[in-house]
Every structure is written in C-alpha cells, then in structure tokens.
Amino acid sequence: MEILDFFQYYDPEPESPSYVKALAHGRLWQTPRNYTYLLTYSTKMAVKVRQNQKEAIYFVTFTCYKWIPLFEITKLYDNIYNWFGLLNERNIKVLGYVFMPNHLHCLIYLPKDAPELYKIISNAKRFMAYEIVKRLMQADNFELLERLASGVKAKEAKNGKLHQVFEESYDAKECFSEHFIQQKLSYMHKNPISGKWNLATDYLAYPYSSARFYDLNQDDENTKITHYLDI
To answer: What are the per-10-residue average pLDDT scores of the chain (231 residues)?
Structure first.
C-alpha cells in the first residue's frame, strides 16, 4: 500500500516535538504529546490528516493548483482578507500572514469551540475558488479555466465539480514554542524577497503580509491581526 502525502503534519525541525511514530500498521500515528490521528484512505490511498487540537496555534499553508499564480492573476487579495474577517468573527485569531502569487501562509489560533482545522481550510478553499472562477470568467480567461477544468478528477466531476483551483492537500504545523512562532513569522515575512521571488525591494514594502505589524508596530489596514503574545 502506497501512502501519498505521507503525513502533512510532520515537522522535521529539531525544536518541534511533532515527529511521528507509526502504530497499528501505519494507520494510527502518535506524537510525543500523545495526540492521535486516524488516517483515512480514499480509493487511491491518499491520506487525510485531521488536526483536532484546540486552543492551539497553527502555521498553515495552501497552494493554487499546479502552482499557477491565481491569486495574482485574479487579484484575489481582497477576497482573502474577507476570509480573514470571517475567521475573526468566529473568534479564530489571525496572528500573521503572507499572500504570495500562488500560495499563502498564515498563523491562526483555534479557540476551544472552533471547527476542526481541515473544515476551516476546506471552507476557505471553496470560498476563494468560487471567486477565482468568477473573476476568470469576467476576464474571459477561458484558456486558464479549461486548464483548471482538466484537473478535476472523474469522480469529482460526477459530483458536479467543474474546476480544480487548489492543490488537494494543505500543510499545517502546530506551534509548540515562541521560538517556532517567531521562526515562522520571519519565514513568512521574508518570503516575498526569498529564493526565486523578487516581489519587493524590501520585505517591509511588500503590501500583503503582517511584517509591518510586527516589525514597525503598525496596524494592518486590511485586516485585524492579533499579536501572538496576546493569546
């Protein structure tokens, strides 16, 4: 049995205790903090991992289909901020973020009464996918719409799905320490000027991140951010 997307929650960094131990023939995994996760297999043996821990901070990443820069093509940034607004209304705190042309990173805090994380991310993808397709249609970008349509699996197409807008999996790491949170904030904020990206001359000048909130003590004009020290 081949397991795809091995374990989305696995964190190889030494300061994080979220290494995993295989139990029960690979179907049950356990972290050092005794959180358990049941792995559910689809017909192609893909793994779906649910993060059930509440009153916790997560570093979350999800990506556009085939890494196509759909956020930039459709100028979706206002819509993502709207999603943040919906999170804040449910007392799910946004602690930091960066929006890249084809993916996003964010730090969010899940209160005790929050839905499971996979539900939050699934709803976010649906919320954004609808708007992305709408804007592509308004722009008569039929070539790209056809490409997204070609990515829909036959089984999902039978259920009415028309476009594959995001990669199916997402990444979520629980933040166990202040050092880990600071590390992820720095990674997010420097992302626009790191590697192949050259989106700004200075990371503080990039408009779609929480860098100025943390490094310059400026309020974010687009969304409500909660400092991680206030959790």
So the answer is: 32 36 33 34 35 86 98 98 98 98 98 95 97 98 98 95 97 97 98 96 97 98 97 93
Q: Please, are residues 107 and 59 in contact by the beta-carbon 8 Å criterion?
A: yes
Q: Strand 103-110 and strand 56-63: pairing?
A: antiparallel
Can you list the domains of the chain with their CATH numbers? 1-49 (no CATH), 51-230 (3.30.70.1290)
| Burial class of residue 132 (count of CB atoms within 10 Å of its CB; 0-12, 13-18, 19+) | buried
**Contact of 66 with 151, CB cutoff 8 Å:** yes
Cα 226 from Cα 223, distance rounded (Å): 10
Amino acid at 63: T
Residues 6+ apart with CB under 8 A from 215: 189, 204
Among 12, 17, 45, CA closest to 31: 17
Three-class secondary structure assignment of 14-66: CCCCCCCEEEHHHCEEECCCCCEEECEECCCCEEECCCCCCCEEEEEEEEEHH
Distance CA 105, CA 97 (A): 6
Q: What span, in angstroms and rounded, lies between the C-alpha atoms of 93 and 60? A: 13
